[in-house]
Amino acid sequence: MRLERQVAIITGGANGIGYAAVERFAQEGARIILADYDKSTGAKAAEELREQGHDVTFVQVDVADRDSVKNMVTQAVDIYGGIDILVNNAGITRDAMLAKMEMADFQRVLDVNLTGVFNCTQSVLPHLIEKGKGKIINTSSVSGVYGNVGQTNYAASKAAVVGMTKSWAKELGRKGINVNAVAPGFTLTAMVEKMPDKIIDQMKSIVALQRLAVPQDIANAYLFLASSESDYVHGHVLHVDGGIMM
Ligand code: CAA
Ligand code: NAI
After folding, report:
1. Disulfide engineering: 189 pairs with which of 16, 171, 202, 208, CB 3.0-4.6 Å?
2. ipTM exceeding 0.95?
């Protein structure tokens, strides 16, 4: 058990990569707050995992809303007595070419993918400091490092996540808190599956391994960064992209 009795908040835990992480962390003995905007899927997923003997609690949250995030953290502490791990996984896309991008779509992507990560980390931080240890794992993207056609808003938010990760690593190392990010490549979740086949084929063609990631590929990287195996890995952006970035 690599996370025995560790308390982990996983945002965006109802679907895709976040759900794979909830499953993986549960198998390793973590107690989990599955935090998501999507109430029906999230509550059902938590219930099913509890029936399998895992300790998973669903909390509805909009990471872009500070009050909602504070409520998530209060619930986590009330239920589990503290927090050890935060996985800032929730994220959205609203793709459009620069010339056509609506301001509302630019703003919402930044609100969720950038401000949401700030909100969650700032709210959880006092509880990690209290313990004198902790793990913060952020989610960037190949788009945030390389850029991507149609993703002005998303790429900006994911590049910002890298900047925050490195700043927090410098601030929080002396408090015993590890901060790292994972930069997934194209991963088979709803986010990618809604793309036209032509674009998915284009995505595949730039991957050295010649396949897209499955959510478990990314969940395994989160697990490494959440476990004590990565205690000396700090301020790192782990590319899990089948060799797009080399
Ligand atoms: N590379 C180069 N050129 C591209 C391109 C690409 N990847 N994608 C589109 N273009 C070109 C088109 O060929 C077209 O060129 P012409 O004007 O010369 O014909 C021009 O850009 C406009 O493209 P569209 O006709 O498709 O424009 P649209 O307004 O109908 O749609 C779009 C724009 C919504 C951005 C659409 O192109 C699209 O969905 N693209 C995919 C965006 C993408 O890759 N998203 C990643 C989702 S997965 C994810 O985000 C997870 C992660 O972290 C990686
Ligand atoms: P997904 O769309 O399958 O799941 C995202 C989850 O986040 C959903 O459950 C959704 O309800 C939740 N969510 C969205 N907005 C929220 C909000 N405001 N508050 C709380 N929860 C919210 O997406 P996927 O693919 O699993 O993405 C997970 C993370 O990985 C995201 O940060 C994404 O940007 C990132 N990523 C995904 C890649 C991919 O190819 N799928 C590639 C690189 C990064």
Report:
1. 16
2. yes
